Amino acid sequence: MNKIVAWRRRDKESGAHSGKRSKFTLQEKKAGLGLLFVTPWLLGFIFLFLVPLYQSFVYSLNKLTLGKGGFDTRYVGFQFYQELFTSHPTFNRTLVEAIMDIVISVPSITIFSLFVATLINQKFKGRVFARAIFFLPVLLAAPVLSLENSSQMTSIAASVTGGAEDGGFAFTSFELKRMLLESGVGSGIVSYITGSVDRIYEVISSSGVQILIFLAALQSISPSLYEAAKIEGTTGYEAFWKITFPMISPIMLTNVVYTVIDSYSRNQLSQMIKDTAFQSLNFSLSAAMAWVYFLIVSIILLATTTLISRKVFYYD
Amino acid sequence: MKIQAEARAAAWRAKRGLRTLSPLQRVKHWSWVMVRTVLIAGFCFVILYPLFFKLSVSFKDRLDVYDTTVLWIPKHFTLDTIRIAFEALNYPKTALNSLLIASVSTILQVISCALAAFAFARLRFKGSGVLFAGVIFTIIVPVQTLMVTTYLNYRYFDIFGLIEWITGEKGVNLLDSYWPFILQSITGMGIKSGLFIFIFRQFFRGIPVELEEASYIDGCSVLQSFTRIMLPNAIPAIVTVVLFSFVWQWNDNYYVSLFLTSTDVLSTKLPVMWASFSLNDPLYAYLVKNAGELLFIAPIIILYIFAQRYFVESVERSGLIG
Known about the structure:
The complex is a heterodimer.
Chain A: H1 2-17, H2 26-61, E1 62-66, E2 71-75, H3 79-86, H4 91-121, H5 127-134, H6 136-140, H7 151-161, H8 174-182, H9 187-198, H10 200-205, H11 208-219, H12 223-232, H13 236-262, H14 268-278, H15 283-311
Antiparallel strand pairs in A: 1-2
Helix pairs in contact in A: 2-15, 3-15, 4-11, 4-13, 8-9, 11-13, 13-15, 14-15
Chain B: H1 2-16, H2 23-58, H3 62-66, H4 80-89, H5 91-121, H6 128-140, H7 143-155, H8 162-167, H9 179-186, H10 193-206, H11 209-217, H12 222-233, H13 235-251, H14 254-259, H15 266-273, H16 282-316
Family (chain B): Belongs to the binding-protein-dependent transport system permease family.
Protein name (chain B): Multiple sugar transport system permease protein
Organism (chain B): Paenibacillus aquistagni
């Protein structure tokens, strides 16, 4: 009762103010505020992103010379691009390696992270603990850390003491390779699988965010779908391929795109772009390299996106 | 008596949700549990191994390294390696620099990204769709493409030629200060800011519109509805973004080595600090390197231990998907 009285009183008060009602509707006000909220980002987008992006293209067409009070530019056209592909000693090879790295690691990271996500999505004892450990690589994926294994130490120790030691610990896939080959799997697939197993630490450490995204996707699938399927008599295996897989296919696309982007930070080419700019002080050549890289990565992204989005299933 | 016990057991089974399984099903179930446990334990081992390795190596004495009987637990326990790494890194000062940069840019980044994401999620205006496509575009373009111009921008920093007009010089040199970090995080252009805007937007979109509408009816302004309704509901997303933003800034050595030349931070000091030892004793340099890396990751691990509970919980509702 008291509440109603209070409400009425408030209504009256606001009625008193309604004489100087603002000219804008709520929608207009929201739109205005929206623009205001976006402003910091928009300023950054224009002045720290679009303009530099354009300028870096301009620099790649100009010869840049640093002077005392600034820098001068002289237009040379596509000379630097020509130099990259025809006379640069290592660019072509590094570029191909970077592309191969993307092509090789994207499938193994995507499949691995989906597998792990389904694994830790199940209920078992110590699940919280296991999850906490699985997300650890996201935090420790620093380029300055060398977290592979101790084989380096063994080799140093061997070189110091002069004796070949067989101690230490290394992941090897020799047995696996023999087993797969004997069971009649094609040698191309075998070498891919064993290659992924040998790089298991790299795969695990770069699939943290992907596991996170898949896990969130898995938990958003409505349990009623599984219940209905269970009543119809599906096995867990069928349920995975007929329910889980289609339902998370949109996220598969997100993850593939993220994995491609994430590979920027890992490859040799980024280092080369940086060294060209700040050790050889050839800013224009570095800008040209970066643009070639960017274009190639966009082509890869475009190709994978169109390829996958054809297969993607949207529930609603 | 016996019947009672059986009934009680059946009731207990029903409560636990266990159905009476046929032996074959039971074997299938338990073998899967076995496989799963082995797999999870195996992956955990692969992840934790390098950490344990560093921990073990850092406390080893020089004698233990050459001793093949010492595998994990050192015979001659020593803190010398860590102390040397601590001094070589100049730890208190460099760690403070790292901490300052990481925390300032985290705070600014969370604010700018949350505001922009709220606008993209709820405050639609003309062209907001196009601008959001711009956010995705910033995620896709490699940072290297902008590297040269970003460097020159901060080297000769100028706003529409204003500074040149006043002082007569070609811009001010903002390198070697914290300004580049502040500027790029306040404008949402820092490390993976696009991803953070994306996470926040997806999360805000998941909060029911009714909640927001109710707040307007109760007389909230848009800003109040944001701070009182949206933000408290978005704590999981905030925790995720804070953790990622801090850790990635702490780990980053790309921007840091681009902007800072004389200020030392951990991520630029770490790769070079052990080089001086490698001339006379490579193995010892390797120990020092590992001890230094342990010092580098220690703050992250401590932060993670505290944030881990919220973080892992938040994953369930982190709204990374739409």
